[in-house]
Design brief:
Elements (H helix, E strand, L loop, with lengths): L27 H7 L9 H6 L5 H11 L14 E10 L8 E3 L10 E6 L3 E11 L3 E12 L2 E13 L2 E8 L3 E2 L8 E10 L5 E12 L4
Parallel strand pairs: 3-10
Antiparallel strand pairs: 1-2, 1-4, 4-7, 4-8, 5-6, 5-9, 9-10
Pfam family, one: Rho_GDI
GO molecular function, one term: Rho GDP-dissociation inhibitor activity
Protein name: Rho GDP-dissociation inhibitor 1
């Protein structure tokens, strides 16, 4: 959901929160890691109940997990991540943030938003986590113009424990490309994936870059 003027025909390294990656190709190391056999997994509730009479272990778990709300913990292993708001924030806009609606199927119909060429902006979103800890949540984004891939990025967001209050996260600032060749329509695919390769949200959308905000 972002482009860079100097790198619009190149893949971008994701910065900020942790080392970002621009490659989506599987390596031999990735294949080796996928064959690892882990021990039996437990739900977060089972982890909290286990050894609950051991004071030192209880304090250690509290330190690691923080203030986890027991009422927000489910009986399943899989975390539930629900995205509430996706917005585009720019100090150059005369109006408030562009708040984008997220359809149930993740496929907005028609034009989703318009960026002003050369503008500086950030992607902001809020989400809730339930049932279990979501580990290594990351954001990937790929953009095409006229069928050619012009941009791709992968950024780490972090690990989050379940709680009733939503988390809010802002992505690094981007600069929209400018000029005659940059203006036009784009298609894109954004995903939010965790360390277990579970995709919590996939959005396929179109957007425009124009001389002014849409």
């Amino acid at each position: 959901m972002g482009l860079d003027d100097d790198k619009k025909n190149k893949e971008k390294d994701g910065p900020q929160e942790s080392d970002g990656e621009s490659s989506f190709y599987t390596t031999d190391q990735d294949d080796d890691e996928s064959t690892l056999h882990l021990g039996p997994q437990r739900t977060l509730k089972e982890q909290l109940e286990k050894d609950k009479d051991d004071e030192s272990l209880r304090k250690w778990k509290e330190q690691i997990l923080g203030g986890v709300d027991i009422n927000n913990i489910g009986e399943t292993l899989d975390p539930e991540v629900k995205f509430l708001i996706v917005a585009i924030v720019s100090p150059e806009r005369p109006e408030p943030d562009i708040v984008l609606s997220i359809p149930e199927d993740g496929n907005p119909q028609g034009l989703w938003f318009t960026l002003k060429e050369g503008s500086h902006y950030r992607l902001k979103f809020s989400f809730q986590v339930g049932n279990n800890i979501v580990s290594g949540l990351r954001y990937t984004n790929t953009v095409w113009k006229s069928g050619l891939r012009v941009f791709s990025t992968k950024d780490m967001i972090g690990t989050f424990s379940p709680q009733p209050d939503p988390y809010t996260h802002e992505m690094p600032e981007e600069t929209a490309p400018s000029g005659f060749m940059a203006r036009g329509s784009y298609t894109a695919k954004s995903k939010f994936i965790d360390d277990d390769n579970k995709c919590h949200l996939e959005i396929n959308y179109t957007f425009d870059i124009r001389k002014d905000w849409g």
